[in-house]
Amino acid sequence: MGRIVVDVMLKPEILDPQGQAVRSALPRLGLTDFTDVRQGKRFVLSVDGEVTPEHLARAREAAETLLSNPVIEDVVDVHELVHDEPEQAPLTGEGAR
Amino acid sequence: MGRIVVDVMLKPEILDPQGQAVRSALPRLGLTDFTDVRQGKRFVLSVDGEVTPEHLARAREAAETLLSNPVIEDVVDVHELVHDEPEQAPLTGEGAR
């Protein structure tokens, strides 16, 4: 089974209240390094078999038409999820490496 | 200015109604390749200057404590956003390459 990642972020000129809320909460946890936070969406699309260029083209079409609102959002990346990537293998908690 | 990406996805065993809604809508757009869709969150944290290992450690701490709910979500990736990555440079629309 192949998987394709689509990353969608608000356009830089669009206000991001969720990101700002996170930004404001970080210093309360003692984390003062971060000057800005933006929150976006990440989709993982599964396909049968290997990911082909046609799958990627259709994922891009889905990204433009359904997964993002082109008035306020940018599709910043569409790529195959390679098996070496630590996806779904949590970095923390019970299943962590 | 350095940037760090934190990717958070629902744990595989947790139902994802948003992803299912997207999954159900795709065939209506003629996109029938996709067998499953999962929707997660993507955060971009900015820091002053270069991203250091300490920044990444603190981003991971933020990911675990604030950006994800460890009961239902996994932090699947924390990495520096390298300038070669097409981030914030939209793939589509006015600013597209």
TrEMBL record, chains A, B:
Top-level taxon of the source organism: Bacteria
Print the keywords alphabetically: ATP-binding, Cytoplasm, Ligase, Nucleotide-binding, Purine biosynthesis
A GO term for molecular function:
phosphoribosylformylglycinamidine synthase activity
* Annotated GO biological process: 'de novo' IMP biosynthetic process
EC number(s) reported in the record: 6.3.5.3
What pathway is it annotated to? Answer: Purine metabolism; IMP biosynthesis via de novo pathway; 5-amino-1-(5-phospho-D-ribosyl)imidazole from N(2)-formyl-N(1)-(5-phospho-D-ribosyl)glycinamide: step 1/2
Q: Where in the cell is it found?
A: Cytoplasm
In terms of Pfam families, this protein maps to: PurS (PF02700)
Cellular component terms, GO, for this chain's entry? cytoplasm
**Which reactions appear under catalytic activity for this entry?**
N(2)-formyl-N(1)-(5-phospho-beta-D-ribosyl)glycinamide + L-glutamine + ATP + H2O = 2-formamido-N(1)-(5-O-phospho-beta-D-ribosyl)acetamidine + L-glutamate + ADP + phosphate + H(+)
Could you say which enzyme class this protein belongs to? ligase
* Subunit description: Part of the FGAM synthase complex composed of 1 PurL, 1 PurQ and 2 PurS subunits.
Please report which protein family the annotation says this sequence is part of: Belongs to the PurS family.
Q: What does this protein do?
A: Part of the phosphoribosylformylglycinamidine synthase complex involved in the purines biosynthetic pathway. Catalyzes the ATP-dependent conversion of formylglycinamide ribonucleotide (FGAR) and glutamine to yield formylglycinamidine ribonucleotide (FGAM) and glutamate. The FGAM synthase complex is composed of three subunits. PurQ produces an ammonia molecule by converting glutamine to glutamate. PurL transfers the ammonia molecule to FGAR to form FGAM in an ATP-dependent manner.
Quote the protein name from its UniProt record: Phosphoribosylformylglycinamidine synthase subunit PurS
The source organism is Janibacter melonis
